[in-house]
Amino acid sequence: MTVVLEARDIHKTYPLGKVEVSALRGVTIEVEQGEFVAILGPSGSGKSTLLHILGGLDRPDKGSIYIDGINLSTLNDAKLAEVRLHKIGFVFQFFNLLPRLTALRNVELPLTLADVSEKESVKKATEMLELVGLKDRMHHRPTELSGGEQQRVAVARALINDPKIVLADEPTGNLDTRTGWEIVSLMKRLSTEKNQTFVVVTHDQGVAENANRIIQLKDGVIQGVKKGSGGIRP
Amino acid sequence: MAMAWQSMKQRRFRTSLTTLGVVIGITAIIGLASLGEGFRVTISNQMEQGFELNVLTVMSGGLLTGVPSTFEDADVQNISRFDGVVLATPLIQKSFVKLFNDGKTATPLVTLGVNFTEFWTIYPDRLIFENGSLPQPIKNDTAVIGYNVQHPTEGEAFAYPSQNITIQMTLERAPLRIENLTFNVAGTLGKSGAAGFINFDDAAFIPIDTMRKLYQTNYSDMIFVRLADPSYSDSVAAKIQDRFGGAGEVRVLVPAAFMAQVETILNMVQIFLIAIASIALLVAGLGIMNIMTVSVMERTREIGILKAIGAKSRTVLTMFLAEAALIGLLGGVIGIPLGYGLAQVMGQFLFRFSAQITPRRSIITGTETQPITAVTPILLWQWAVGAIVFAIGVSIIFGWYPARKAAKLDPVEALRYE
After folding, report:
1. What is residue B137's predicted lDDT score, i.e. its pLDDT?
2. What is the value of pTM for the model shown?
């Protein structure tokens, strides 16, 4: 099995007023190709910070991250942006779609940033929207879509550049239980069908149970790792 | 670029207002510039009509203060050999002359003794006959009469070609010595204006040799010099000054230099106008800065999203600068025709008031100048291009700060922004 994500001894502190708050205190994680990993923890456990650092949105105070063998700490901001563009897909709690763009354009955005031709990016984005079951809604703007539909668009956008890993930050946090399940099962399906690696941060035990592996995080430290009921991978 | 356009379409009203600022700036610049250019050309043309740029006038330094004839024929000969000189010809001017014809009296301000053939070569386009022509050959009693002398009042005529008239000259005043001579009128002139402080309309012309004989002199008062090209003006003027021992001794009127001075003044006026108009564009620039700062704040989250999914700072910077540049381009493209249109309207109406002023005589050239009632603005393509470049430049400069702010946003913080 190939390791696509490796984080070693990650430390991060935040200044909160005059006090330094330790968000992460030595976290080490390895994720293999095709794995569906959940990071489970209560709010304030540092799981969002960890996800940002894993995705190259933020830098750790100490420790190193390798994505697809690339050491992120050696990269400047521009190179880091390139890694985010080509190797990482993000799914956020609040969907974070561009409100002015249609679903199709939102999904196309990473391709546009990667200088893919208009014709090809439309084709790929259409296919991707079909894959998440939104082909008939692709010319709608986010405001015309339900929360679940918006999150599907976000998933499609995360996958459009064939990333090595998709990082999802509370992807069900802003959805009702049923729609949340739909999104989780969509990600599960994509994980299986496309052998796509997912790391999902959640505080929801039920969501986490779908993963191959559940990493429990509390107060910036990993408390334990257990297998989810998400099935045994072949 | 496409994203910038998208974003501008979304904020149509605000973008329109900002663009309007640029439009006003460019309109003002182009309007004033093209009006100024039209004005400059109109004035230059009018001035040039009163000037032969290739004719220098040489007079003794004290002519205006009454020091009489100082130039010898040798001087004239010498000047005519200078590089670039086509012809140099002497002139004598006398006052206290009266003309009589058949009971009518005319009083020219000056009577000029000239070499007719040469003098008409100096001013071929100016000394145009209303009646008659120069006789060939010139006789000793040939006379030519200027327009105002011929027509003391409108419609009245003093003499006709080939008529004999009596010219009464005051050769000396103390003791008084007057001589009446008969001259034959060769022709009368149309309105000719003035050169070298002599108004030809108020003059009568007789042969210089006749004049010299009467007044018993070998000198002349002025020398008229025709150049091959106005560009010889300075060098020939300098040589003439040299010959007579400096600027105090002789005065050389150089119309080209005068014209250049006028041009300089007109250019300065134009630059001044454009500079004032540019302030409007700078104000528009502040508007761009303002709208973009607000826009960056509003779109903080959006910028965070873009950066999260892999947009580089450069891309974000380019996006915002493209937006600013588009505003500038749009403002320029709209502003140029508007400015030109404004100049047309202003050119038509701004100078109307001066139409109420009657035509007046220019103190410099003596020609009757029609007051400027309308100016046709002139838009040079270089300005159109320059205005667009300027508009885009100002937009980018003022857009730089907010764009940079946007580019530098931290993605995590930007995503957290509500």
Report:
1. 87
2. 0.68
Contact B310 A58 (CB under 8 A): no
Report the alpha-carbon distance of residue B180 to residue B170 in Å, rounded.
Answer: 9
Helix, strand, or coil (residue B404): helix
Q: Which of B309, B312, B313 has the CB atom closest to A90's CB atom?
A: B309
**Amino acid at the residue A198:** F
DSSP string for chain A: --EEEEEEEEEEEEEETTEEEEEEEEEEEEEETT-EEEEE--TTSSHHHHHHHHTTSS--SEEEEEETTEEGGG--HHHHHHHHHHHEEEE-TT----TTS-HHHHHHHHHHHTT--HHHHHHHHHHHHHHTT-GGGTTS-GGGS-HHHHHHHHHHHHHTT--SEEEEESTTTTS-HHHHHHHHHHHHHHHHHH--EEEEEES-HHHHTTSSEEEEEETTEEEEEEE-SS----
Residue B25, phi-psi category: left (phi > 0), alpha (psi -120 to 50), beta (remainder): alpha
The pLDDT tens digits of the residues spanning B231-266 come to 898 899 888 888 887 656 788 888 888 888 888 888
* Contact B418/A at CB under 8 A: no
Q: Which of A78, A85, A101 sits opposite B309 (nearest CB)?
A: A85
Residue B158 and residue B99 in contact, taking contact as beta carbons nearer than 8 Å: yes
Mutation for B interface: A57, A72, A201, most B CBs within 10 A: A57
In chain A the domains, ranked by start, together with CATH numbers, are 33-61+73-227 (3.40.50.300)
Q: Is B1 an 8 Å CB contact of chain A?
A: no
Beta bridge partners of B223: B58, B90
Dump pLDDT digits (tens) for B44-102.
Answer: 777 766 678 889 988 876 545 445 557 888 889 999 999 999 999 999 988 888 888 88
Residues on chain A touching B311 (C-beta within 8 angstroms): 81, 85, 113
State whether B312 and A77 contact (CB < 8 Å).
yes
